[in-house]
Amino acid sequence: MAVSKRSKKDPVILITNDDGVMAxxxxxxxxxxxxxxxxxxxxxxxxxxxxxxxxxxxSPLRLQQVHLIDGAEAWSCSGTPVDCVKLAVDxxxxxxxxxxxxxxxxxxxxxxxxIYSGTMSxxxxxxxxxxxxxxxxxxxxxxxxxxxxxxxxxxxxxxRILRKKQDKHLCLNVNFPAVDESLISxxxxxxxxxxxxxxxxxxxxxxxxxxxxWLTGAFVNFDKGxxxxxxxxxxxYVSVVPVQFDLTNYEQKTKLEKTxxx
Amino acid sequence: MAVSKRSKKDPVILITNDDGVMAxxxxxxxxxxxxxxxxxxxxxxxxxxxxxxxxxxxSPLRLQQVHLIDGAEAWSCSGTPVDCVKLAVDxxxxxxxxxxxxxxxxxxxxxxxxIYSGTMSxxxxxxxxxxxxxxxxxxxxxxxxxxxxxxxxxxxxxxRILRKKQDKHLCLNVNFPAVDESLISxxxxxxxxxxxxxxxxxxxxxxxxxxxxWLTGAFVNFDKGxxxxxxxxxxxYVSVVPVQFDLTNYEQKTKLEKTxxx
Lengths: 262, 262
Prior knowledge:
The structure is a homodimer.
Chain A: E1 12-16, H1 24-33, E2 38-44, E3 63-66, E4 73-77, H2 81-92, E5 99-106, H3 113-116, H4 118-128, E6 133-138, H5 148-163, E7 171-176, E8 186-189, E9 195-199, E10 202-205, E11 211-214, E12 217-221, H6 229-234, E13 237-242, H7 250-259
Parallel strand pairs in A: 1-2, 1-5, 2-4, 5-6, 6-7, 8-13
Antiparallel strand pairs in A: 3-4, 7-13, 9-12, 10-11
Helix pairs in contact in A: 1-5, 2-4
């Protein structure tokens, strides 16, 4: 792959995440794609996992310039991942980047996780704003995770998406299996599996005897399909699910028209 | 409509919101449907607007029993709207309610708001957990808003949905125009409009000269369709959009398979 010098025509690549600007995952993502365009990093100043599509409306936001990697402007933001995208476009880039990348998340965002994930919500926010976007996640929660295979495939995916003009609302949810590069079967375009958490709150008592609850639960896959992201990851594929922000259930829409005839 | 006495066969109706357990909207919703089943209210102890599908994973949750209306068990929860649904099912109801209602929100949740809204995320969480659900929102942010038309139509909608067995993942996003009952045109089943906020952060300086930013912006409707929720509301209809949690963009999926052939 030819690496060209930075020019005005280089794509502007906005990078964010939900694990915070200091997480190894975002550094790995920036390193993986740094020669594909002009990199601007705007990420939360603290972990924001599970924040979903939350935005900050009751308090103001702060931005602070930081150094992450040479040659890339980087900012730490006091808000959520979605706030980071909004602020980056309005106050740092003063316009739209060519692509927005989010991650690499420490932990999976396949199946129903797409809805809870701050990583994916940042990517979805970009696609709402007509910026093609990709969220990346590695199936390893560890801060010491091995990102080498993820880096290789993240770069391949970004390079292929940048190669030609994409739908302005394109949003991809990419997950990497936590295996050695030599074991990866390839890249598989999938649908979101119907798999969810079966909650089982851990009930405890504080020193005054009052109850409190920790969210815990088991992840259960109810989906037997071989075209899902969970299946792909279980079979060592990199899973790619195209995601949309139109939540309308068109099949139900037709059925419901009869129910609501007044 | 005949009102039967409470019996074991009465549907169990879980009610939550994102404006907090003390907001007038949730009281109006509970009053509107209280004779349609056994009411259990579990709602945030403080406003949680714009929390999207956030869940609380870094700190534990608290529940506190409160009194809202006679004959209904009510709990205040320290978490997000999604946490409320999870905790209600696991620790209060010890099982699934027949339906989950969320709202009535003070302010619109049509079009793209469905993604930012704590009200709708609570309803979506219920539908993920195989509980049919309905989120209600009134196009009036005021805490003194007139809920009389919203109450009437919320009751009609809940009654019709309870009348027969629904898809276990049914989730409706219902918005009420802020007009007098006499002006309401009817109920319209719609799709989600492509309409979004154009951000324009308000940049200020604190007393030490450091910048901070308030999220503001104008709502812009890019969608000219007459089958959208925004069109329906502009024409004084109660809008009903069926919502799904499978975010897969199936059209893109087919297109992308070629892009990622290795």
